[in-house]
Amino acid sequence: MENKKIVILGAGHVGSHCAYALASAGICEEIVLVDTCPEKAAAQALDVADSVSFMDRPVTVRAGRHAECADASLVVVAIGEPRQPGQTRLDLLGRSVELLHVLADQLRPLRLGCPIVTITNPADIVADYLRKSLELERWRCFSTGTLLDTARLTRLIAHAAGVSPRSVQAFALGEHGDSSMAAFSCASIGGLPFSSFGLDEAAIRDGVHRAGMDIIEGKGSTEFGIGRALCELAACILRDEKRILPVSPLLMGEYGVSGVHCGVPCRIGRNGIEAIIELPLTQKERGQLMASCDVIRKHIAMADAMESR
Prior knowledge:
With 309 residues, the protein is of the alpha/beta class. It is built from 8 helices and 16 strands. It has 2 domains: 139 residues, NAD(P)-binding Rossmann-like Domain (Rossmann fold), CATH 3.40.50; 162 residues, Lactate dehydrogenase/glycoside hydrolase, family 4, C-terminal (L-2-Hydroxyisocaproate Dehydrogenase, Chain A, domain 2, Alpha-Beta Complex). The strands form 5 sheets. The protein has a 6-stranded parallel beta sheet, with helices on both faces. It starts with a strand and ends with a helix.
């Protein structure tokens, strides 16, 4: 990993903002944007490259091809179509599977050796599809999962409690979507239990679920939040930071769940997921997580059926 190169597949709103966040953070030496429209990838790369002139650390930003993934330190999958007002992330499944089928054929001959992080929605089902299509280990192919949901949860708790988000530790688990749940029993604010603050759990949870659509209805797409979330995750991998972040790996018995990609806290290092952290959820929270996993499981089966046609 001498040349810390990150390849981003998809140069739309999300992919380009991931590139800008990565360039701003200076965590890699090279960022390569790949898109089915090479002209778009080249233009986005040039735009981000202009911003690098004002940054402390030099970063090469350029357009490239899928073959660039062969020697990458990290591959980020950000292909797909944006969610429209009124759509859930799950509504994007059909088109995402079509695009992923083509992408898998392009990546399979490269025998990728680095971690692959997916952002494309529906995130959990996409991670499962790509992992199976490329026959990758579960620790090496996963989605950003509930990382963005957790950022929103932390922001809302901090606002309600009147503290800095840095004083809040909390995790959203389950689907990156409307069935995600908040592990309030394990959350803390300034070292004190969340429960001691008397905050409205339902209002906070509903706020997390509404956040993405509020942004889409207001400006048409989400990009800055997920860009920074991906940047934090990429830093954990390239710098081998061992931080615990909620991403979506394949569960194989953890939390009593098997065969489902699901957002849970994980220790992240150079090779991807090093350990899955099992929080001591209450019985009610465990039921909420199982319900969310059932939603994911149903849509994994739908994606498998699309592939078999």
